[in-house]
């Protein structure tokens, strides 16, 4: 079976966000879905982060959110995450989707355009 793939700069993005635990992740994910800022959010437990913060090396257990959305939603998405995120400087990184299954990308668009 052949699948149609799109390979170009598109309007679609993946946003990575770390949160302190699953409860915070679930709360942010549900808000983003309900407010049509994301089509899908994967909430992945069991992440271990090691990072430099305020003069020293820190280690924390965290949860990762993988958010599928569109570029035109990014500013509102970041604003909504910042309003609900407990960290002073949360990790919010947007990456362009440069290719993917056409039907999935169309689903993202349809989902974010729903009434």
Task: Describe the fold and architecture.
The protein is α+β, with helices and mostly antiparallel strands and 115 residues long. The protein has a single domain, classed as Alpha-Beta Plaits (2-Layer Sandwich). The protein contains three helices and six strands, in the order E-E-H-E-E-H-E-E-H. It has helices at residues 22-34, 74-84, 102-112; strands spanning 5-7, 12-19, 40-53, 56-70, 92-96, 99-101. Helix 1 runs antiparallel to helix 2. The relative contact order is 0.31. The model has no long low-confidence stretch (mean pLDDT 93).
The tally of strands reads 6
Derived from helix and strand composition plus strand pairing, the structural class reads: alpha+beta
> What is the strand arrangement across the widest sheet?
3-4-2-5
Q: What's the order of the H and E elements? A: EEHEEHEEH
Termini separation: 34 Å
Percent of residues in helices comes to 25-40%
Strand content: 35-45%
The major beta sheet can be summarized as: 4 strands, antiparallel
H/I helix tally: 3
Q: Overall pLDDT, averaged? A: 93
CATH-defined topology: Alpha-Beta Plaits
